[in-house]
Amino acid sequence: MNAVERLTEYGIKPSVQRMAIMGYLMTHRTHPTADEVYSALCDSIPTLSKTTVYNTLKLFVDNRAALMLTIDDKLVRFDGDTSLHSHFLCHRCGKVYDLPYSGKKSEARMPNLEGHNIEEIHHYYKGVCRECLEKEV
Amino acid sequence: MNAVERLTEYGIKPSVQRMAIMGYLMTHRTHPTADEVYSALCDSIPTLSKTTVYNTLKLFVDNRAALMLTIDDKLVRFDGDTSLHSHFLCHRCGKVYDLPYSGKKSEARMPNLEGHNIEEIHHYYKGVCRECLEKEV
DNA sequence: AATAAGTTTGTAATCATTACAAATATAAAA
DNA sequence: TTTTATATTTGTAATGATTACAAACTTATT
């Protein structure tokens, strides 16, 4: 599936900027910040505005074509993979890793907990990643 | 357990400000922001500085006497209850509710997932809370 | 009391994010 | 095609939570 198909699937009309941003999310599974998306694309789209990146990412999230991760208290990150999975933040190198979702699978279908209407589930781990642990020695 | 005991238990030397802030966290399970803590205490401690509130909450978190919640992308919230439990954010009224932890209990003891050293687990739900759903009708 | 160490305070910066209005592009109507 | 309306993008300026920093203050130690 390409970026255009992905956008239309979520009811988002494609444009040069939207395709580029969605394309970046699809090919870079690094959970980038808005600023990282902007920096990566502003060479190929010289007129690109940072406001557009913010607005477009918000549009994706509102239409459930992307996830907004609040795992880091400093920066909001975005994830083009909207399937249910967990995230791990290394507080040493700042990288965010994907992990399989470890909550009860029965809750994957947006349960109704204590009367609340659940729309999103986020599962975050924090610590020191394998790579940083190896460097330690 | 009172605030002083709690502080010393976590190796934090008590002070007027620290006792007041820890006391507030212990008696108000509302997951307050730094600003809310400041506003609540600045009457009883007129000289209190917002910087102190920020520094002190950070001190608590560093010493694991409190949790920092990043469930909301706008505001960092704090929780004096450091036991393993989940949180639910209502995106209509902004309130944060406690929920029982629904991940695998076996992971409660800080597992070693894919070689990473896990130090914290956060489980966030988002949606519309029971109270807001009732008002809707 | 004098000195050192730890804590608090106020002000000024930082910096990610948003508000807003002008400019541009796309679609629809004439 | 031209005109008109609608949608999208852009740049600049503001917002606001958080932090840096150095002075003031408090507590502990010599």
What does this structure look like?
The structure is a homodimer of 137-residue chains. By secondary structure, chain A is α+β, with helices and mostly antiparallel strands. Chain A has 2 domains: 3-69, Winged helix-like DNA-binding domain superfamily/Winged helix DNA-binding domain (Arc Repressor Mutant, subunit A, Orthogonal Bundle); 83-136, Ferric-uptake regulator, C-terminal dimerisarion domain (Dna Ligase, domain 1, 2-Layer Sandwich), CATH 3.30.1490.190. Chain A is built from 5 helices and 5 strands; from the N terminus they run H-H-H-H-E-E-E-E-E-H. In chain A, the strands form 2 sheets. In chain A, strands 4-3-5 form a 3-stranded mixed sheet. In chain A, strands 1-2 form a two-stranded antiparallel sheet. In chain A, helix 2 crosses helix 3, helix 2 (16-27) crosses helix 4 (50-62) and helix 3 crosses helix 4. Chain A is globular and about 45 Å long. The model of chain A has no long low-confidence stretch (mean pLDDT 93). Strand 5 of chain A pairs antiparallel with strand 5 of chain B, so a sheet runs across the interface. Chain B binds a DNA duplex (30 and 30 nucleotides) through residues 13, 15, 17-18, 33-35, 47-52, 54-56, 73-76.
